[in-house]
């Protein structure tokens, strides 16, 4: 289809082409051409999804009238989860559009209207957000059309409406943060908020355990909500999105109109501030040059200098911060179990804290030890290589200990023996994960943080075995400390977990040159 150059459709086609190239080109930095292995694998998975959906819809049969209440509740929970993950993805894409793409100066200096640019950016963002969910849910619409169950075609407008609503909310939140915090802080805060939006569903599911009273039975918040919704009429407005996804015509019209209205109002009210936010983001990089002369301090030791340097570099990267803080959200349920429950679940707390320490240490060690921006500069410096490596290990390990210090201290006060055993396993998991990365990891760039397992399969395997072994050892030691009955299987499990936990480091030391 030929479109007029400079029109909104022409610009939208360019946005969709960029999305397609980024999706199918494989690794970052590779030429912008489709990776046929990736496309072939995705097509096979998609065909398999169609086959599975075909069998499922044949077994269910056509649904007439109002669906059962339990089915509507389940679809509502699925749509809520989908919208939260859409909002998380939309926040990341809004930050990328505002700060990272680098094409907005060219677009704004062109004769294209700013409203058209903003409309196309919002539409492209909504399409990118909806693409993943269409991959998994579109087979229902296709197979439903084949079987004559046309109600499943409603998934298309419902998913696009939810994606447009999530993109509008993400743009509004990002621009509000720019107004309040400025462009430089917004880049970090928006990434963190996006990570929290994706993990909000997990925290809500654990809310019942977090708020449980002492002596009572802790039921999850999701179980309580599901029980309370059993008395709600399926025709209620609360279930309007679910009824729309299941093919109710009026509900589909309402949901599609809400999504379209949200997009139109966002474009009309905020496109001028969108331009100002882009100009502020472009000018934020020049603020530091006018801040005055740089003052150098040389009164610190080498260890302190390297540690502070690594922490500052990690803090300046919002993508890394969001990835690390996403792991910290899973610490909250453990903290509430430690602080609020009178009958401490020592085994669960110790194993959870140990696993969290190992995972955080592995992530920080990869960032600090393997993703060094100037390794040649450090190697050619007059500092001892051993001192620099020790400082980098300290920069990776110290934040882990600081983050879990409060729950661990409370655990030691409440149960000294259990707390000391948990401290030992947490220390072992933290140090082991860091040393495994130092000895067997391969140098990489910070942009490869998400795909680090593809380049260092041996390192990731050793990390996983170490974290699981230390967590199992923490669980078994707590069982032994609380007077669990001894058996041959228990002794074998304890010995096996200890052997793996303590044997990972010698194995990593032996593989240090072969892996590199």
Q: What does the secondary structure layout of this molecule look like, with pairings?
A:
Elements: H1 8-24, H2 36-60, H3 69-100, H4 104-108, H5 114-147, H6 155-181, H7 183-205, H8 207-210, H9 221-229, H10 240-245, H11 249-284, H12 302-315, H13 318-328, H14 331-340, H15 346-370, H16 375-379, H17 385-414, H18 416-440, H19 452-455, H20 457-481, H21 488-510, H22 512-515
> From the alpha-carbon coordinates, what is the Rg to the nearest angstrom?
26 Å
Globally, the shape reads: globular
Overall pLDDT level: 76
Give start-end ranges of low-pLDDT stretches. 212-220, 285-291
Characterize the biggest β-sheet: none
Strand content: under 5%
Order of helix and strand elements from N to C terminus: HHHHHHHHHHHHHHHHHHHHHH
Give me the count of strands.
Answer: 0
Give the distance, in angstroms, between the N- and C-terminal Cα atoms. 50 Å
- Percent of residues in helices: over 70%
């Amino acid at each position: 289809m030929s479109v007029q150059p400079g029109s909104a459709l022409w610009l939208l086609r360019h946005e969709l082409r960029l999305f397609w190239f980024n999706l199918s080109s494989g690794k970052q930095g590779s030429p912008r051409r489709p990776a046929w292995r990736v496309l072939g694998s995705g097509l096979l998975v998609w065909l398999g999804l169609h086959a599975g959906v075909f069998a499922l819809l044949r077994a269910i049969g056509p649904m007439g009238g109002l669906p059962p209440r339990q089915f509507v509740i389940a679809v509502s929970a699925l749509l809520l989860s989908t919208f939260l993950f859409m909002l998380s993805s939309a926040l990341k894409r809004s930050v990328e559009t505002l700060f990272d793409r680098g094409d907005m100066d060219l677009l704004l200096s062109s004769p294209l209207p700013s409203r058209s640019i903003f409309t196309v950016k919002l539409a492209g963002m909504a399409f990118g957000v909806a693409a993943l969910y269409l991959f998994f849910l579109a087979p229902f619409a296709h197979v439903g059309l084949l079987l004559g169950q046309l109600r499943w075609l409603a998934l298309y407008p419902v998913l696009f409406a939810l994606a447009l609503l999530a993109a509008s909310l993400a743009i509004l939140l990002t621009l509000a943060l720019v107004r309040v915090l400025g462009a430089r802080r917004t880049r970090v805060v928006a990434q963190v908020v996006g990570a929290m939006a994706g993990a909000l569903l997990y925290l809500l599911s654990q809310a019942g355990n977090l708020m449980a009273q002492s002596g009572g039975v802790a039921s999850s918040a999701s179980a309580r909500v599901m029980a309370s919704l059993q008395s709600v009429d399926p025709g209620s407005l609360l279930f309007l999105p679910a009824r729309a996804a299941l093919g109710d015509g009026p509900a589909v019209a309402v949901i599609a109109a809400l999504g379209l209205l949200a997009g139109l109002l966002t474009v009309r009210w905020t496109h001028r501030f969108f331009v100002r936010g882009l100009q502020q983001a472009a000018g934020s990089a020049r603020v530091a040059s006018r801040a005055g002369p740089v003052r150098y301090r040389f009164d610190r030791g080498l260890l302190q200098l390297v540690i502070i340097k690594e922490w500052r570099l990690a803090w300046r990267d919002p993508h890394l911060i969001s990835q690390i803080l996403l792991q910290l959200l899973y610490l909250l349920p453990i903290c509430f179990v430690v602080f609020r429950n009178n009958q401490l679940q020592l085994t669960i707390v110790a194993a959870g804290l140990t696993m969290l320490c190992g995972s955080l240490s592995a992530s920080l060690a990869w960032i600090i030890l393997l993703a060094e921006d100037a390794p040649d500069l450090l190697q050619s410096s007059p500092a001892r290589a051993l001192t620099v490596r020790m400082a980098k290990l300290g920069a990776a390990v110290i934040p882990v200990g600081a983050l879990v210090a409060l729950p661990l201290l409370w655990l030691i006060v409440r149960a000294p023996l259990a707390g000391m055993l948990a401290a030992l396993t947490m220390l072992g998991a933290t140090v082991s994960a860091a040393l495994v990365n130092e000895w067997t990891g391969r140098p990489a760039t910070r942009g490869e943080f998400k795909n680090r397992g593809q380049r260092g399969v041996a390192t990731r395997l050793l990390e996983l075995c170490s974290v699981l072994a230390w967590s199992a050892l923490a669980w078994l030691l707590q069982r032994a400390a609380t007077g669990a009955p001894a058996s041959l299987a228990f002794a074998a499990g304890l010995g096996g977990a200890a052997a793996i936990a303590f044997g990972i480091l010698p194995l990593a030391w032996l593989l240090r040159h072969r892996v590199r």
